[in-house]
Amino acid sequence: xxxxxxxxVGKVAIITGAARGIGKGCAMTLxxxxxxxxxxxxxxxxxxxxxxxxxxYPQIQGFGMIVDVTKENEMKELIDRTVEMFGHLDIMYNNAxxxxxxxxxxxxxxxxxxxxxxxxxxxxxxGCKYAAIQMKxxxxxxxxxxxxxxxxxxxxxxxxxxxxxxxxxxxxxxxALELAPYGITVNCxxxxxxxxxMHWAYLRKTAAEKGTTFEDEIAxxxxxxxxxxxxxxxxxxxxxxxxxxxxxxxxxxQLININGGMDFT
Length: 265
Fold this sequence. Notes:
This protein is an alpha/beta fold and 265 residues long. It has helices spanning 21-32, 46-56, 72-86, 110-138, 159-179, 197-210, 214-221, 233-244; strands spanning 12-16, 36-41, 62-66, 91-94, 141-146, 184-191, 255-258. The protein is 46% helix and 14% strand.
């Protein structure tokens, strides 16, 4: 029996957008599985999240770092500091993102386009760039990017957000081809409706506009999810653990749905 087939203990992961939502849940789950985690976010409470992880799993090494993913030098420093501490990088999870809010094409502004693409696409590209530089030196590595259901299927009033995620999908597949000769896999995980602060804010806004309640909007969503619940960071972490171990080492260039059966595209 190969004891390393699904074993991620001792691996090193960077997770961006880890102060809350899917990123935080993923970081907590990976740490619980023995993965050393470096977590980053533009929000200052990223330090509190690291303290929470370290208190729950004192054997786990790592740190929390305030990072603006739209700034290339800060993303480079994040990866440089990680490699300085551990000597290598096994997993790069580019998760930081914003939705920009609903916006019809007739209301789109240059500022909105720049804001969404700077965080969602440029931040992801910088993370991939510097992770790839390190992983090519090592001759191995796993890059996982957060895509979206919205990047696969058009949704009214979400065209800018969806386009930014579709760009991530396409570039991830291009990088899978570029980096395969170096033993590096690149994949996207594509959540749909998730138990996150971002989604709660959307539901509260929708409720206010429709004259309903937050609870009404949640109740209206659940029947559309065959598994009957919203996604979590732990669900995303399960896919990352698979991709980062020998059991998922033959998977690259894929857009992996994590959506409870909502959509099969």
